[in-house]
Amino acid sequence: MTNTTAAIVFHNYPQSPVAEKVRVAFGIKTLSWHDVEIPRLPPKPMLTALTGGYRRTPVMQIGADIYCDSQCIIHELERRYPTPSYMPTSDAGLMWCLSRYTDGEMFMLTVKLILGSAGDTLPEDFAQDRGRLYLGEDWADGLKRANEQLPHLVSQLRAPLSWINAQLSDGRAFLLGSAPAAIDAQIYYAVWFIRGRWSGGPSMLSEFPDLMRWEENVRALGHGTSKPMSAEAAIALAKSSIPTSAIGVAKNEPQGLETGMLVSVSPDLDGGEQPVSGNVRYADANTISIERSSDEVGQVCVHFPRAGYRVTVA
To answer: Virtual CA dihedral for 261, 246, 229, 70, nearest 10 degrees?
Structure first.
């Protein structure tokens, strides 16, 4: 076995807005990474072999450590590559709190707007998959309501976009000043999604000239340097490596977790997704990491954020 820590392997597909957030994060730190393109729709057998069932996009792999959810990925990139920082000011706590809004309510409004505006033009399999993932069991009614409420959805997005425009009105290049930060990526991906996937997006965004100037600045950061990698090679890398992440449970653990305890982890909402099961390797306020093994991938450690995810003791 080898301790492989250097190579960043990114499991994503080009049209994914959440993957775009992380690609911008790579650009901020000018990182090199291996690009594994995954299917837009399940099944995703090569991906779920690594994650133990997690099917969302994106996933980052470093050797046998597998990082799920962009929140977890950005935290880990900051830990491994601290310069330049994703937090160039002293407001890191506030910025992480704000990211819960950009990844939550703001992104959900964007999803509803784009899915709702597509109406009957959405391919049936895509509508069913994304509708169930984001809108719950009554996804068909949810899509119908989104279509009927498009002006309302636009109004709900227009407000935060106006706030961002005002933040940038002093001429600053990025949201926190002259240096790009994680929050730039965490807001940009919604703007990127609106512009690229809704026919009314460019017109709506044209109301906000400072936001559009900022949008160009973020786009110019690029995505770092990537080269393609096959899913088979990524699995072989995991199998030839061992996890290198920390082991232990921090004090004041509210669920009584201990290392080695069997748990399952899943997003803390009803998206019809398969939980991931494994043994606790590490837990603190921000992260839950579980070990699992299979003949296909060997021993891996799968990492999730604590915020937005449910940990269930088996």
So the answer is: 80
Q: CATH: 2.160.20.10, 2.60.40.1120, 1.20.1050.10, 1.10.1270.20. Which one for 92-220?
A: 1.20.1050.10
The alpha carbon dihedral of 25, 28, 29, 30 has a sign of positive
- CA-to-CA distance for 151 and 166, rounded, in angstroms? 22
pLDDT band at 5 (very low <50, low <70, confident <90, very high): very low
Q: Could you tell me the two tokens for 278?
A: 């494994």
Tens-digit pLDDT profile for residues 221-233: 999 999 999 999 9
In this structure, whether the domain defined by 9-84+225-313 belongs to CATH 3.40.30.110 is answered with yes
Q: Which residue in 227, 225, 208, 228 sits closest to 216, CA to CA? A: 208
Extended strands (E) in the chain: 9-12, 32-37, 59-62, 65-68, 225-228, 248-249, 262-267, 276-283, 287-294, 298-305, 309-313
Is residue 198 within 8 Å of 117, Cβ to Cβ?
A: yes
CA distance 55 to 166: 37
For 87-98, write each residue's pLDDT tens digit.
999 999 999 999
Question: β-strands 9-12, 59-62: how paired?
Answer: antiparallel
User: pTM for the whole thing?
Assistant: 0.96
- Cis amide leading into 43 (omega within 30): yes
